[in-house]
User: Fold these one by one.
Assistant:
Number 1:
Amino acid sequence: MLASLQSRLYDLVRRDTFLPRFHFLAIGLLGIMLLLLPQLTGLVLVGLFTRIFVLAVFGMSYDLLRGYAGIINLGHALFFGGGTYIAGIVFANYGTSPTMLGLAVLGTTAYAMLAALLMGKIAFRRGNVVACAMITLALGEIVRQIAESWRAVTHGADGLTFPIPMMFRDRVALYYYALAFMVIMMLALRQFIMSPTGRVLLAIRENEQRAIFLGYNTASYKLVALQVAGVVCGWSGVMFALTSRFANTELLTVQQTLNALLVTIVGGTGTLYGAIVGTAFVQLAQHTLLGLRGVHLIFERWLLFFGAIYVFVVLFMPTGIVGLYQRLISHWLKPVKPR
Amino acid sequence: MVKPVLKLENLSSFIGAFHIVQGVSLDVFPGEAVVILGRNGAGKTTTLRTIMGLLRVAGGVIELAGETILGLPAHQVARRGVGYVPEDCIVFNFLTVKENLQIAMRKADKETYARQSYALDLFPDLKKAYSRYAATLSGGQRQMLAIARVLQNDNKIILIDEPSKGLAPIIVERVGEALITMKNSCTLILVEQNFPLACAVGDRYYILNGGRSVHSGHVTELANDVQLQNRFLSIGA
């Protein structure tokens, strides 16, 4: 009975034609909804979605490393926090003109490339995942310690508040800038993954030694991935500066990196879209749980629920939300052999 | 006098703290197919991995066409013209047969495409599965793909480690036929436990025992010398 129903469903919506159409329609609808959202809701949700767009880029940059190149970088926050700090320092000391924004972006790009180069040269020397994770963790902590001690510039843990350029002060305008930023970064990263360099990165993730036997200097390719991820992450840090108007050393901690790791786990690694889905899920769950604090005392301990959600996802959805969706689709729309 | 394509002299290498290769010497001349034989643990695979630059070398000489490649990282050894098909014949599952061949191309010139076409003629199964993902290939097809990937490049020598391992007899036969055809156009080192296959493909042999090369000669001599087979390979009567 179920098999015949599946068979009919498959006849109706053949996977090769139905899925692309369905995805196109779903993405189109989602796009229209996101474009109309500021007109339909209040500033709280607009602010929340702006944050989701910015943090999704942070998550995607992490996914490029973990999901595509197989690199565990526990110091990834140094790019994100670095971008926020550079933008904040430029705006606080040199003004908020568009030129200064350009300078902040250029400064972040140079900082991220240099930091990624140094990090990669040290971390990829041993060529093993654990050593790389430990070295990147240590480098991230060094940068955080420097920021902590350099109070004259960073204001340490107290934080640095700063003005932002006029064009980003309107929350709705900022929402659209953040949305455009996320879409552009997603397309750019997707293009990078589809490029020959991206294919080699996937080969390295699957079997690094095999890629070496084919003549690829895998350390160089991983370094390129780290630089691309570092620059994109730094830019997301600049965008975060525009949304928060505040930077402190919390942004450089390993916790910040773990947030990116968690959104890729929840959303699904090695998909790029997973980071967007994961960030949206985490931020919306956090927002909802925080909102429930007034309903019952137990929700004061919202972090417990949050932890439980993570455990549930890791145990029952090891490939994340996007992975689960892909599995369900391939299961339900597979052709059924006639009996 | 013809110079060897690959020359090993008293090669010695470690895996971690274990001294596995303790003195291997061999010469491979252009167009030859040399088989390395020996019991399990004799150091055959370790010798190939040492040539590829994957292990710590304690001493000795590795020369490729007269130039030393000792101490070079593995990717540079590969770029200098050493093709390696390891025993686990790993292919990239997320790529199709076509993409697996493309990613392994060192140059995208006419000659490489001609060699690729030759490799596909050698393994017609790959031609049929050209657009299929490597994850869907059988063990034999994966082995063929692994060999085709090195065959398409302009390698000075190809090292193949146990191509018959884990394959059904009929597939071993087909891989063997391909190797026999292949040896007319390239220089080969074959590590093989399957003695009939090694005899069918090889011109000369080296026997390793306890990490040292202890005997060498023409394969036909070994095929007729049951005493030698029994002494070093435990396959005689």
Note: Chain A has a mean pLDDT of 88.
Number 2:
Amino acid sequence: MRAILYLAWRNLFRNTRRTAASLVTVAFGATGLLIFQGFNEGLMNQYRENTIRVRFGHGQVFPKGYFEQVFEQPWKQWIEDRAGVEAGLSSIPQVKGVYPRIGFFSFVIKGGINLAARGEGVLPERENEFFSRMNFEAGRDLRDAGEIVIGKGLAHSLDVKVGDTITLLGQTIHGQMNGADLIVAGIFHTGKKDFDDGFFRVHLDAAQRLLDTTRIEHFALQTGGVEDWPVVSQAITEKLPQLEAKPFEDLDAVYYKNSVQFLNTQFSFIRSIMLIIVALGIFNTIAVGLLERAGEVGALRANGESRSRLFSIYLCESFFLGLIGGAIGIGAAVILDKTLLAGGIPMPPGPGITRQYFILLEIQPSHFVQSLSLPALTTVLASLWPIWNLTRKAIPALLRAN
Amino acid sequence: MLRARKDWFTSGSRFSNLMWRMSNSTLLYQIRSVEHGYPWGNTHVQVLRGLDLEVPRQSFVCLVGPSGSGKTTLLNLMGFLDRPEAGEIEFFGERMSDQRERDLERMRLTDIGFVFQAFYLLPTLTVLENTTYFLPRLGISGARARARGEEVLARIGLKDHLHKRPAELSGGQRQRVAIARALAKRPKVILADEPTANLDRATSETIISVFQDLQKTESTSFVFATHDTHLVSYADHVFELRDGQVHSSGRKA
């Protein structure tokens, strides 16, 4: 085996120009792959963070069965012991923030215009620091119980601007009509039209007053990171069995989960195309290089060299090419990441994101492994046929070839 | 003089059977009614047409004749690079048509040394590495392989070029390395296509004397396809080929 590896290694230096061409092809593929994967990771993380920090948190906690079912009087299911549940959730070490909320429907009235909309009661003094990605095109986020922030589409339909007073009119949990006048503090947009067209946020106290309840519909949670969620979810199941926890990707299945699946499929397809391009480039270079060796292979086989040994030598040579090319490509990608791409790649607003932003490459250790192994494997696979073809040829045909 | 590994010789295989016959047969090659050709586009070019030939052991044979007469094709068949379309070739009394491909490959390694006019050296290896290329597969490696390589290269006048690459050598020197690579295996027979074509007269004399020495000391046989009348003058047997048959043959008195 040592002799095979030695001969394969030495073969790399037989035609330095051709070897360099092969290395550049593989390196180009590896660089592209690594940058692409880093970009993909950065984009996904940005998108994920956006989803988490606009609205959902890392996950939310509901009364058991509440999320899947529709209730005629949903407030009957709501959480009564807010302080107890909050304390229980806060005692989980990975939980960094607990945000009580209420979701409800009400009429939003301005002048003669009367629209039905979905509202959410939140504690802005707690939430504003973490839920920082909601974009305000006018005004600012909530500060006190006399204010309201509304979606851009809803504001447009009501023809309101920051500083205007609008009226919320709804039913209390006891079935009586109730209303509240609130000052518009801000007009937001999230990039999701249906959300921006029919959603508003008020202070939790204002919502509870409107509904005449002290209950809480659900808690949004902030954890140390998405990786903490399984532990948090398990702890909630054990400590608070009357509740159930849902991660953000389940809460935003339509946008986040589907978009991630869509983008990942697209990325996999593009990655396959990149590898096919590398394979075609390598196939061509190796096929031409091997053709030149036909006479030499014939002479070696005439003197007793075995097909399998030659096959192994050439295959190892391809593997070395793939490995070295991959390493060079990774080096080039790291240099690019630290220099030209250090400031990130400017991106136009994406799904659920309303402003231009920069994607930083987030290269993970597994990306290095993939960027080294995939081009090496592609090189070996691309060279299989030319090597097989050469070593299977009859010796006189090989000797006549040059 | 047999150098086959003991386990091959005693295993009762076809190869060990051949080894046994080798020690008894007086003929190196017995070629009977051999026909062979090559595909050429959509046609088939017939090269050998019922050729008969006998080569004794330990002989120095030259195949002469015009281009296209079948010298190289015959050499290929004698070196087991191809199987004849018709007829039979016996090597040390053993029918080659009975041999499996794997056995032929092993015989090419142990019993045949092939030298080509185009050298076909490995450009990335040194002269010494090229010379000893096949020795590890014959069970000779490390210092023993190196010693044998140096000895062969010294015999053909290349001891000062051990660590040079083929690209640093002249055509004649490269030809000598190709010969050294074949000699280092100490085969039963060396088959060569124009072995002296790239050599000057003095070097040619040196190489021929090495061949003659090996013929006497190692019982090595030599079969050359050549146009070199100087080389032919040293041959024990000369076969002139024309139109794929032996037109005439001569033997040194």
Note: Chain A has two domains: 2-51+257-401, 65-241.
